[in-house]
Design goal:
This protein is mostly helical. It has 13 helices and 2 strands; from the N terminus they run H-H-H-H-E-E-H-H-H-H-H-H-H-H-H. Strand 1 and strand 2 form a beta hairpin.
Length: 299
C-alpha cells in the first residue's frame, strides 16, 4: 500500500461513519431490501453501531433460558452466562463507544455465547481457545494486520498479550491443551485466549478487522470491491450481507468465505455445507449468532 492511500485516525473515523451512514441510507431507500418499516429495519441484527444513534449501546438483560440450540435444547449454563453478563458485557458496552471500533456489543456477546457458552477455558477440536474461541492462526493474522497504518493503534495492546508456545504449536491437539490446562502448565496468565477479558477484547478487534476485510480495497482488507460486485451489483453491502460475511468468516475463515462468494455470488450462503464437508455446522452457526444477536439488541 502506498503512503498517499493512508489517512490519519481522524480521517479513518470520518470515512467509517460516512460509509455506515451511506449503507444505512441505501438499505432504507432500496425497495428490494428495505424492511416494511423503520422499526423493522432497526431489528435487523447488526455488527456495527448506527452512527446516527446517540444513545449508549446496551445489551439486553435476558435469562440464560432464552438462548437455545437449534434443536431447542438449552445452550448455556447459568453460572457461565452470569459470568459473561457480570464481567464481559459491561466491557463490551464500554469498548463499543470507541469510534475506531463501534462494534455492537450485542453481536460480540452473541458470538461468545455461541462459541464457548461462556466457558473461558473451552478448547475445540480446531483447536480454538477460550471464551471467544479464536485460533492461533487467527491471532497470527491479527498481529500482522495491526501493523497496517489504520490499525497500528491496536498493535501495542495486541503485542503485549501473553502467548503460550505449547498451545500454538502446529501439532497441538485439543487433548494435549486440556492436559496442559489441567496440570497448570498453561493458565490465563500465560495465554491470553484463556483470560476472559483479553479474549473478548481480541474478538472485538478481530471482528473489526474482518469488517474491514469485506469493505475496503486495500490491505489488510482488500475484498470489498469484489464482494460488492458479486453480492450487490457494485453497490454498498447491506447490513444483512455484512452480518453473513463477517460471522461466517469468524467461524470458518475469510479465505474459505471468499472462495464461496467468488463461486456462487449472492447465493453463497446456500452452500455453507461445502465449508464443513457436508455437515450443517456453518449454517447452524450463522443462524444461531443471528438469533442471539437479535435477542440481545436492546430496543
Amino acid at each position: 500500500m502506498t503512503s498517499n492511500a493512508r489517512f490519519d485516525t481522524h480521517d479513518t473515523v470520518v470515512m467509517r461513519r460516512f460509509f455506515r451512514a451511506a449503507l444505512t441510507a441505501f438499505a432504507l431507500a432500496s425497495p428490494s431490501i428495505a424492511s416494511p418499516s423503520i422499526a423493522a429495519q432497526v431489528r435487523e441484527p447488526r455488527i456495527s453501531l448506527d452512527s446516527a444513534t446517540s444513545s449508549a449501546p446496551h445489551v439486553a438483560d435476558l435469562p440464560a433460558s432464552a438462548f437455545r440450540n437449534a434443536n431447542g435444547s438449552p445452550r448455556l449454563r447459568d453460572d457461565q452466562y452470569a459470568f459473561v453478563r457480570r464481567r464481559i458485557v459491561p466491557l463490551l458496552e464500554k469498548w463499543s463507544r470507541d469510534d475506531r471500533l463501534a462494534i455492537a456489543p450485542a453481536y460480540i456477546t452473541a458470538l461468545i455465547l455461541k462459541e464457548s457458552g461462556g466457558d473461558s477455558l473451552a478448547v475445540s477440536y480446531a483447536p480454538a481457545l477460550g471464551l471467544a474461541q479464536l485460533t492461533a492462526n487467527a491471532d497470527s493474522d491479527m498481529r500482522l494486520m495491526v501493523t497496517e497504518y489504520h490499525f497500528q493503534w491496536m498493535a501495542p495492546e495486541v503485542n503485549r498479550w501473553p502467548r503460550a508456545a505449547a498451545v500454538r504449536s502446529p501439532t497441538a491437539t485439543a487433548a494435549a491443551i486440556h492436559s496442559l490446562l489441567a496440570r497448570g502448565a498453561v493458565t490465563s496468565r500465560t495465554e491470553f485466549l484463556f483470560a476472559p477479558e483479553s479474549s473478548a477484547r481480541a474478538a472485538l478487534f478481530w471482528v473489526r478487522l474482518l469488517e474491514n476485510k469485506w469493505t475496503t480495497a486495500f490491505w489488510p482488507g482488500g475484498d470489498g470491491p469484489a464482494a460488492r460486485a458479486k453480492l450487490n451489483g457494485g453497490r454498498p453491502l447491506t447490513q444483512h450481507q455484512m452480518f453473513d460475511l463477517v460471522t461466517v468468516s469468524y467461524n470458518r475463515g475469510y479465505i474459505e468465505v471468499k472462495a464461496l462468494v467468488d463461486r456462487y455470488g449472492a447465493d453463497w450462503v446456500s452452500h455453507l455445507s461445502e465449508l464443513t464437508g457436508g455437515q450443517a455446522e456453518a449454517a447452524d452457526y450463522l443462524e444461531r449468532v443471528r438469533a442471539y444477536t437479535t435477542l440481545l439488541q436492546a430496543h
